[in-house]
Write a structure and sequence with these properties.
Elements lengths: L6 H15 L12 E6 L10 H19 L3 E3 L3 E2 L4 H10 L3 H18 L10 E2 L3 H16 L3 E11 L4 E3 L4 E2 L2 E2 L7 E10 L5 H6 L9 H11 L1 E13 L2 E9 L10 E4 L4 H7 L3 H12 L4 H6 L4 E9 L6 E7 L10 E4 L5 H10 L7 E2 L21 E2 L10 H14 L3 E7 L4 E2 L1 E2 L9 E4 L3 E4 L26 H4 E3 L6 E4 L3 E2 L1 H4 L3 H4 L13 H5 L2 E7 L5 H15 L9 E7 L2 E10 L2 E5 L4 E4 L2 E4 L7 E7 L10 H8 L1 H11 L6 E2 L2 H23 L12 H24 L2 H17 L5 H18 L4 H10 L16 H4 L3 E8 L2 E9 L4 H10 L1 H7 L6 E5 L3 E5 L1
Parallel strand pairs: 1-2, 1-26, 3-4, 12-14, 26-27, 28-33, 34-37
Antiparallel strand pairs: 5-6, 5-9, 7-8, 9-19, 10-11, 10-18, 12-15, 13-14, 16-17, 20-25, 21-22, 21-24, 23-24, 28-29, 28-32, 30-31, 34-35, 36-37
Helix pairs in contact: 1-24, 3-4, 8-9, 18-19, 19-20, 19-22, 20-22, 21-22, 21-23, 22-23, 23-24
Bound molecules: ligand ANZ and zinc ion.
């Protein structure tokens, strides 16, 4: 065996072996234990980044570990291949999105292979393949049939110059990214998936997801946002008709403090009142120009306009003024609120701004209310009692809510109501590069679903967008078709589906990627749910929620038997690197940390020596130019060193700080491991471990088996890969310290090296592939059986050591065979007899002869 570690040869060899033997093909015998390990699929942007590498390394380690434990492991990979970046690249380079995407996929597949991930490529799925997205279309039609898909108008960002709809990320400070034109809101017809029908189940089932981080469960619960409150009517007469203005409140107990009502700018009553009131009309127009994201609505300055119109308070009969407020969301509750400035912080500010009356109707003993002063948190409490509230005086929150709800119900002006923040999922995108919505527009028949036997509606993949709207809308070949119902001329829908549709079920398709008769088949029952899902925290809400919804829809259509798709979820931390820049007037240029070195503690450019400023650590990103290219990394240090560093530098959920020195350290360890095995193997085969061992051999053996127990727990349960690696590093140190002077010693070293290689095989599979062979195994390391700790070997052996004081035998102590110097010294000094002879004198020196004696000099 060559005595030096050459990662290029070793990695090329191992990868060739895996490829030739089909080592990554999934085993699928029905009585075997299954383990489905899934990483979030990447967007084929062109190159892997370090976040991908970390994500997939974690997944590969877990997958290989379970494979060695004898399980049938499914570790697939695919491509989230539709989406906006392909269109942008097409505009920039004039290449069709389809070409660009497929080229990227080929390139990135090669990158993943170079990292040695044990991915079953025969199951690869690209969401832009008609064989895949036809089932998006098929399920869409099933849902349409069941009323789970419906059409209504939705609000979009409209660029008046390009005459096109913009995605939220294409609106920058309220203007179109290409034209700079002020963006308008537009109402257009869109398709929605009725996720709200599952709101309650999606919320209550979160409790059962014990394998998910608490943080993610909380984020989902907040997103679904269940509120229990009361729907209250304020009657009015307009245009000679009696009508009711409904509001939703979670504080019905404060109804007696309502001094105004506010409606959203899109509320029908606002639109009606605008006809008689130019101020209202102007205000509505102004709101229309504003942003549409919830964040924009939450942060904008609260403003309103009085309509001059009044409604009737349902209990007191008083006249209550109606306002239009920009903070009232049309899409939540009733699109209208009752203004209770006395107890709602927002209404308090609003009332101060527009000089509206503030009434205190909740009191807390010992607190002083001052409507002229600053808002106090206790004003919003639910722990007070009603005052100035007529019949409800003295009642607490719950009793007052119940009493008011009952009185309102009696005169048809109210009912209890559970409200969700969650909205139905609008899936229509006015974009080209996505899955076509399978609908045809016919002048006679209206909206006609494409019949099942005409699926898929194939997206032409040779169009090149130019930025002026959806190129599908200009493609006569795509648009023109026959109406499936009347046979007359018709036009295809040109909207495509939100790409979250694609990613809501790709993990199901991996279980049966060749199923062409059905969306999924019986194999799904074997593999699902996913045992371990791994990905970024940025998908904590939408992707995971949509997948949970989609799974339930398929369950209710009889296609699946599970409720939840992902049993365990791991959200890996970000990869960080230093950020360096130079300022030149207003311009900031970022420099890659690889081009910066420290001179006298000051960061300077390695070439030229110009000083740069340090911004500190930040997420690796293009904009800060602080990324590390995985390809360069692998070429320089090898995939194994990269993988080892990633798993060693931090536990998976924490951020990982990039360090070139850390990668070099990982590489040095691999060299040490390689040398240890090479030297051992060069002395010929070793025999079996005999029953009788001397103390030192027993100690090494004990450490070997203790390491197995620790690594097994770290990899299988705790996911603390860093401490697992540290334990194997210590084992290697112990092996190197051990003097294998006889056959028994060599046998123990052989066992220890075997163990180290087997335990590291999931983490650094290439070098372990080579070393496992060198250790004399027939089967490849990837199929090696995961070691099990021998309890007998774990028993601690004790040694008897004599203790001298000034050279005279004064005691005998018993210590553990592998106790270190410090422990032996302490045990010696603690011995009663030894203490007697030290006799309170200062200890000048303690000499420890390991395994034999201690001499205390006083
Ligand atoms: C009166 C009131 C008094 C309120 C008070 C709060 C405190 P959650 O918990 O999120 O459901 N609200 C209702 N519909 C709204 C809409 N479409 N746009 C903006 N705000 C709306 O919040 C429910 C509360 O949010 C409701 O209770 C309402 O204000 C407001 F001391 O009604 B409350
Ligand atoms: Zn027709």
């Amino acid at each position: 065996m060559d005595n030096s570690y050459k990662h290029e040869d070793i990695e090329a060899d191992a990868q060739a072996f895996w490829e030739q033997t089909g080592a990554f093909t999934t085993r699928e015998d029905a009585d075997g234990d299954k383990y489905y390990c899934l990483c979030m699929l990447p967007y084929p942007s062109g190159r892997l980044h370090m976040g991908h590498v970390r994500n997939y390394t974690i997944g590969d380690v877990i997958s290989r570990y379970h494979r060695m434990r004898g399980r049938n492991v499914l570790q697939p990979m695919g491509w989230d291949a539709f989406g906006l970046p392909a269109e942008n690249a097409a505009m920039a380079n004039g290449v069709a999105p389809g070409r660009w995407t497929r080229d990227n996929i080929d390139y990135m597949r090669g990158q993943l292979k170079s990292l040695g991930f044990a991915i079953d490529w025969s199951r690869e799925v690209a969401t832009c393949d008609p064989d895949y997205y036809r089932w998006n279309q098929w399920l869409f039609l099933q849902m349409l049939d069941k009323g789970l898909v419906y059409q209504k108008t939705g609000t979009v960002n409209w660029d008046p110059v390009d005459q096109t709809v913009l995605a939220n990320e294409q609106v920058i400070d309220g203007r179109g990214w290409r034209t700079g034109a002020l963006v308008e809101k537009r109402e257009i017809p869109m398709y929605y998936m009725r996720i709200t029908a599952y709101a309650d189940e999606l919320l209550s089932a979160l409790d059962g997801l014990e394998g998910w981080p608490e943080r993610v469960r909380t984020m989902q619960a907040n997103w679904i946002g269940k509120s229990e409150g009361v729907r209250i009517a304020f009657p009015y007469t307009l245009d000679d008709r009696d009508d009711k203005l409904w509001v939703f409140t979670t504080r019905a107990d404060t109804l007696m403090g309502a001094t105004f009502v506010a409606v959203a700018a899109e509320h029908p009553l606002a639109l009606r009142l605008a006809k008689d009131n130019p101020d209202v009309a102007a205000f509505i127009e102004k709101c229309r120009a504003g942003g549409i994201t919830e964040a924009e609505l939450a942060t904008q300055e609260k403003e309103g306009v009085p309509t001059g119109f009044h409604v009737t308070h349902p209990i007191t009969g008083d006249k209550v003024p109606v306002w239009v407020g920009n903070y009232v969301l049309m899409a939540y509750g009733e699109g209208a609120v009752m203004g209770v400035p006395g107890h709602d912080e927002r209404d308090y500010a609003f009332a101060h701004k527009y000089d509206l009356p503030i009434r205190q109707v909740v009191d807390v003993e010992g607190e002083h209310y001052d409507a002229a002063g600053d808002w106090q948190d206790w004003y919003g409490t639910k722990n007070g009692v009603c005052i100035q509230s007529g019949p409800y005086d003295g009642l607490g929150f719950k009793a007052a809510t119940d009493a008011i709800a009952a009185d309102l119900a009696a005169n048809g002006c109210g009912e209890k109501r559970v409200q969700y923040r969650l909205r139905d999922w609008g899936i229509s995108r006015q974009r080209y590069w996505g899955c076509p919505i399978p609908i045809v527009h016919c002048e006679h028949c209206g909206e006609v679903p494409v019949p099942e036997d005409q699926l898929p509606v194939v997206l032409p993949d040779d169009l090149v967008p130019d930025g002026s709207g959806n190129p599908l809308a200009k493609s006569e070949a795509f648009i023109n078709c026959d109406c499936p119902r009347c046979g007359g001329p018709a036009r295809r829908e040109t909207d495509t589906m939100d790409t979250f549709v694609d990613s809501s079920w790709y993990y199901m398709r991996y279980t049966c990627p060749d199923s062409d008769e059905a969306m999924v088949d019986a194999r799904t029952n074997y593999w699902l749910p996913v045992d371990q899902y791994i990905g970024g925290i940025e998908h904590a809400i939408l992707h995971l929620l949509y997948s949970r919804f989609w799974t339930r829809v398929m369950r209710d259509l009889g296609l699946l038997t599970i409720d939840e798709p992902f049993t365990n979820l791991l959200t890996q931390g970000m990869v960080l690197n230093q950020i360096y820049f130079r300022r030149d007037g207003a311009r900031i240029t970022y420099y890659n940390p690889a081009d910066v070195e420290l001179r006298d503690g000051q960061p300077v450019l390695a070439s030229g020596g110009n000083s740069v400023e340090a911004e500190g650590l930040g997420k690796m990103s293009k904009s800060k130019n602080n990324g590390v290219d995985p390809e360069v990394l692998v070429a320089r240090h090898g995939a194994d060193a990269a993988r080892l560093f990633m798993m060693f530098a931090a536990p998976p959920e924490q951020t990982l700080e990039w360090s070139e020195a850390g990668v070099e350290g990982a590489s040095r360890f691999l060299k040490r491991l390689y040398r240890a095995v090479a030297e051992h193997a060069s002395q010929g085969p070793a025999g079996a471990v005999p029953a009788n061992l001397d103390d030192a051999a027993k100690a090494l053996r004990r450490q070997t088996h203790a390491t197995i127990a620790k690594v097994d727990d770290d990899l299988g349960r705790r996911y603390t890969f860093n401490t697992a690696i540290a334990a194997v590093m210590e084992l290697l140190n112990a092996i190197n310290r051990f003097d294998a002077k006889d056959a028994a010693g060599r046998a123990v070293v052989h066992e220890a090296l075997n163990t180290a290689v087997a335990l590291l095989a999931p983490i650094v599979p290439h070098i372990c592939h080579r070393l496992w062979r060198e250790l004399g195994h027939e089967e490849p390391a990837i199929d090696a059986t995961w070691p099990t700790a021998d309890p007998a070997a774990l028993e601690r052996s004790e040694l008897e050591i004599v203790v001298q004081v000034n050279g005279k035998l004064r005691g005998r102590i018993s210590v553990e065979a592998e106790a270190d110097r410090k422990a032996v010294e302490q045990a010696a000094l603690a011995d009663d007899n030894v203490q007697r002879f030290i006799d309170g004198k200062a200890v000048r020196r303690v000499i420890v002869v390991p395994g034999k004696l201690v001499n205390v000099v006083v």
